[in-house]
Design brief:
Blueprint: E1 4-16, E2 19-25, E3 31-32, E4 34-37, H1 44-56, E5 59-69, E6 75-77, E7 83-97, E8 107-114, H2 127-137
Parallel strand pairs: 1-7
Antiparallel strand pairs: 1-2, 1-4, 2-3, 2-8, 5-7, 6-7
């Protein structure tokens, strides 16, 4: 039985040419966008850029604030039994540089997907933000 905690995350949805870059997580084998915990004293934008670089090898040249996602819909139970209530501050980025290269410690794969043809096994805590992004792009 794990612990329950709450943390603030910073995430980035990378997109271009009607495609979105997703990573397959090692812990739950699900696909998701890129992000992680904001460290104590760290600016949220800096955390988002840091996590993006660590997980994908890409540098965000600019970020656009997308939204804050919290509450029961972003609650997640990790494979180790720990439960998290996540406050996810999500940014959009279509201005980036570098070549995609996934972080082998946390990821199994990194792929571009057509926005309207993403995999079904999406990591549960990112579903609300990802659905909102897809709906916004399709407007």
């Amino acid at each position: 039985m794990g612990n329950t905690f709450q943390f603030c995350g910073a995430s980035v949805i990378i997109y271009k040419d009607n495609k979105i870059l997703l990573q397959q997580r090692k812990d739950n084998k699900c696909w998701g966008y890129h992000g992680g915990r904001v460290e104590i004293g760290e600016k949220v934008e800096d955390a988002a850029k840091r996590e993006l670089l660590e997980e994908t090898g890409l540098t965000a040249n600019s970020l656009e604030f997308f939204g804050v996602f919290s509450g029961p819909e972003v609650h997640h139970t990790y494979p180790d039994g720990n439960k998290a209530y996540i406050i996810d501050i999500v940014f959009l980025c279509n201005d980036f540089s570098g070549e995609p290269l996934y972080q082998e410690e946390e990821c199994l794969d990194l792929q571009w997907f057509e926005i309207n043809n993403i995999p079904e096994n999406i990591s549960p805590p990112i579903i609300p933000a990802l659905n909102k992004f897809i709906a916004q792009i399709n407007m």
